[in-house]
Amino acid sequence: MRIIQTQKSVTFPAQLFLVVILFFSFSLQYGNAQSSNVKPNIAPDEFTAKSAASGWNVGSTVPNVTFNDVNNKKAELYKLLEKPVILEFWTLDCAKCKDNKRYLKAFYKQFDINIVGISTDEYLNQIRQYAKDLDLHWMNVSDDSKKFVGKTFVEANNLGNPTYILITPDKKVHKIFYKLDDVKLLGVELQKYFNQ
Fold first, then answer.
1. What is the pTM of this model?
2. Domain ranges of the chain
3. Superfamily (CATH H level) for 42-195
4. Which one, of 161, 178, 170, lies nearest residue 77 by Cα?
5. E strands along 59-170, which residues?
């Protein structure tokens, strides 16, 4: 009996150790294969992000950012800036965000602008369905930055808690709106910009 128990206590940990090693080596190989291909859905360009003049304050030149939306469509912010761009920050459970989409749809139709909706939710299918249900014709992106840098895009760029950022074709932050109720002020700002 003692010999059998000793054999079990020796062989079981050895088998467990072997399984852990195999799993770990597979994880490393798989992780390395994936890490070179997988990037955050909102990826700032390092060169423009390090420029002394770049930033996310009013009047600052924004760094170039690549967006990968929920339909796997990619676009660079600088290419979208052939016209003014609104970055809209929202969540799926925000009823007011949903109400404000009708204003954004009106702005999108009335003015010559691009919109990028950035949701802090990671539920791609739900965001995709939400955009389809509301008939949104602009990019909608899930901010998965936490998986890569441990912070959301907003946190990583010290943006406070913006709701809308208006960026003009000269690549500058024109205005930042921090409240959901500011959607009407955003409309006024767009009217002023296009009437100057």
1. 0.79
2. 1-38, 42-195
3. Glutaredoxin (3.40.30.10)
4. 170
5. 65-68, 74-76, 85-90, 114-119, 139-142, 164-168
